Amino acid sequence: MIKIFKQEEQKDENYRRLLDNLEETKHSLDLAYQNFENATDPELIDSYIYELNAIQMRYRFLLSRVKSYETFYNKLT
After folding, report:
1. Long-range residue pairs from 32-40, CB within 8 A, at least 24 positions apart, any chain
2. Could you report the per-residue pLDDT of 10-62, keeping only the tens digit for each?
3. What is the dihedral of CA 60, 64, 70, 74, to 10 degrees?
4. Residue of 2, 50, 54, 60 with fewest CB within 10 Å of its CB?
């Protein structure tokens, strides 16, 4: 019985971390878009394009992990 509670507690902690990372990444993405929109120097524009691409990739990865996590645990219940 204690093992079940520990597994549930671990699931909640991992899930919460994923959601926190997803939220932080969303915030970073919003800031990167703001910086890109305000950039006028061509080198800065290129820099923000690379930054946006990297953050978007991270966001998509985290989102897929959250969805996988939810799907897996919904099948268990």
Report:
1. none
2. 668 889 999 999 999 999 999 999 999 999 999 999 999 999 999 999 999 99
3. 150
4. 2
Which amino acid appears at position 21 of this protein? N
User: Residue 27 and residue 25: Cα distance in Å, rounded?
Assistant: 5
Decide which of 73 and 42 is more confident: 42
Output the pTM of the full model: 0.79
Distance CA 14, CA 62 (A): 12
What b-and-e string marks burial along 6-33, b requiring 16 or more CB atoms within 10 Å of the CB?
Answer: eeeeeeeeeeeebeebbeebeebbeebe
User: What is the rounded CA–CA span in Å between residue 50 and residue 74?
Assistant: 36
Give the pair of three-digit tokens for residue 5: 């509670």
